[in-house]
Amino acid sequence: MEILRYAAFSADPSGGNPAGVVLDATGVSAAEMQAAATELGYPETAFLTPTGEAAFDVRYFSPKAEVPFCGHATIASGVAYAERHGSATLQLATNVGPVELTASAVGGEPTATLTTVPPHTAELEPADLDDVLECLRWERSELDAALPPRVAFAGGFHPIIAAGTRERLAKLDYDFDSLAVLMTKHNWLTIDLVWRQSPTVYFARNPFPIGGIVEDPATGAAAAAFGGYLRSLGLIDLPGRLTIHQGNDLGRPAVITVDVPADPASGISVTGTAVAIAE
Predict the structure, then answer these.
(1) DSSP secondary structure code for residue 253 in this structure
(2) Which of 5, 95, 123, 218 could hold 277 in an S-S bridge, CB 3.0 to 4.6 Å?
């Protein structure tokens, strides 16, 4: 089993979000996948098993547990595949449904685009919001009233909570254990904390204690869920494109491009580059 190492949503190996990629996991058991992801220690590792021409089953593991879907490891997988086999459109069978992945390594920086399963957005109950804010050590008065809290899904469930200022977003100091318990209870993958610089430019941070990591440096699944959130609440002109900056406060800057189609039944597309990390 060859584990490739990539930084996703960055052209700099010291930026973006590290991901492990196994392009052929044929015959590898779930226990072996978990052990490899734990040893590697990256936020997620993607294991692809070929099932046909340009078709794969994909499973994702954090250092602590399997996760249903991971955006940055999918982008890294697309770039890794294109660098070895050329530009391609891959059909991925994930635990949440089919995901299309297009990738190109021709000219300039290699890029990949994934299109998620159809997203949906639900209410975040007031009591659950209170619990999240208590874990974050945030106050309701510090939130952006124009971006109401919700739970958004585009492969994983992410509470969307908008900070009223960039300064509030930058000061992240939360109760790791309490938030992990709360997220496990509700099956939340990360908490998507955002700040709106403009209607199409956002900064984000994603606590990820259930994965054994304080913060995910660049979260493609949450970015897609956020695009679906904006569409469902009528907070973006359609079709629309978002730029999400993440990882800046960690010293691992990343740029995520999100395309939101007008059709409410359509998946959200997430685009980024990736670069190999030297062992």
Answers:
(1) -
(2) 5
Burial 52-64 (b: 16+ CB within 10 A, else e): eeeebebbbbbbb
Contact predicate 228/220, CB 8 Å: no
Beta-carbon-side half-sphere exposure of residue 47 (alpha carbons within 13 Å): 22
User: What domains can you pick out in the chain, each with its CATH number?
Assistant: 4-118 (3.10.310.10), 120-263 (3.10.310.10)
Q: Give the rounded percent of residues in the chain with a pLDDT score beyond 70.
A: 100
Q: Residue 199: how many CB atoms within 10 A of its CB?
A: 12
Whole-prediction pTM: 0.96
User: Half-sphere exposure (CA, 13 Å, Cβ side) for 223?
Assistant: 35
Tell me how many degrees the CA angle 10-15-20 measures, rounded to the nearest 5: 80
**Using CA atoms, how far apart are residues 263 and 101, in angstroms rounded to an integer?**
19
Q: pLDDT per residue over 210-233, tens digit each?
A: 988 999 999 999 999 999 999 999
Residue 107's pLDDT band (boundaries 50, 70, 90)?
Answer: confident
